[in-house]
Every structure is written in structure tokens, then in C-alpha cells.
Amino acid sequence: MRVLYVEDEPFLGKIVQESLESRQFEVRWVTDGAEVMAAFADFGPDVCVLDVMLPHRDGFSLGREIRALDPQMPIIFLTAKNQTEDVLQGFESGGNDYLRKPFSQEELIVRIKNLVNLTRGKVMPAPPDSEGIRLGRYLFLPEKQELLLDGQAFKQLSHRETQLLAMLGAKPNAIVERREILQQIWGHDSIFNSRNLDVYITRLREYLREDAGIHILTLKGVGYRLTT
User: Rounded to the nearest 5 degrees, what angle is found at the Cα of 10, between the Cα atoms of 2 and 46?
Assistant: First the structure.
């Protein structure tokens, strides 16, 4: 699970980052509000954990922008403020949850897991008469978000990676339109989301490169075709 973590306080940021990484989260830690949206586009997180008080841009404005780009993105706000109006502003800014400082690492981790599970969209299930989707030497298990290689555990996929591979794998050797992918997974075919899609396509190609017979072909201006 990829966590975009935004916190400008160095000591706290390092503690939270190390705590999450020790539990197998992949973390991108950003300390400046002005750098958050570029990190969001490049990293493609599964959840955003945003401090409210940041240099150059506040967490609430970032939450609104992220929510406009990705209506399904789970967002947790972190703040030392405890006024009711601040809590309300957090939810009005697109937040799904709100955690006051100081907080325990365990509580943050539980909230992240619960929130992602609650806000995830539907993942295309494996066909009922099979154990998954066979892709050459790979076996793709959408419900477990797992990719096996030659019958062995190979890669645990993120939620978005699972959604994308499920769309492509459901129609092997057929064209899946880029616009359809953006609408179904991101909810909007904006340029920003389009760049995110490019990042995820690159990741899937990297995961599938162990089998030379599998390719994700780009049909410029149209979409993609997964060939097996």
C-alpha cells in the first residue's frame, strides 16, 4: 500500500515514515506543501495522510485539489488543532478521516487500513470457474491483489494496479480504451489523471517483463492492448 505522507516536522515525520515502512507500507514523505501535487502525480498513492499546517500550502487546500482530481482517494488529515470548526473544515475539504496530534502510530495504521478498505471501489473478481487470470507464466489473483510467477508469490499489487491489470487482463489481445480506463478507475479523464495512468502502465510492464511473451502495447490516442 502506497502512502503519501505530508508532514513538515522532521522528527515526527521520520518516526511515522519508519513506523509505516516497518509494516510493509511504501511511503513518500513530503515536507513542503508546494511539492505535494507533483509527488501525488509521480507516486500514485493509495492513501494520502496530510498535515494541515505546512509551508507554502495548507493541507486543507491540498485535500480539496486532490479530491477534485481523484474523488475516490482516501484522505486523512493530521492536526494539532482541536476546535470543532477545524474538524468540520477538514471534512469539507475532502477528508475522510481526521486525527489529532499527538497520536499513536498504531492508531494511524489502523485508520489507514480501515479507510482504504472502506473506500476501495470494486475490483474485478476472478472468474468463478478458475483460480485467477492466467497471463503466460503469471497467475493474477485480483481478489488477493497478488501476482504469481511460475506458481510462486511474485508481487503484491496496489489497489490501482489491481484495477488496471484486471481491466487489461479481462480482455487479452483486445483494445481497452484509455478514456474508459480513466473514467472507471480515476473517475475523470483529466490530464493529471492521464499522467497517473502512464505511471501505472510503466509499473505493470516492469512487473510482467519476466515473461517475454507478454506485452502491454500502447495504441496512441486510443488505449492499450495486453498481448499474451
Answer: 10
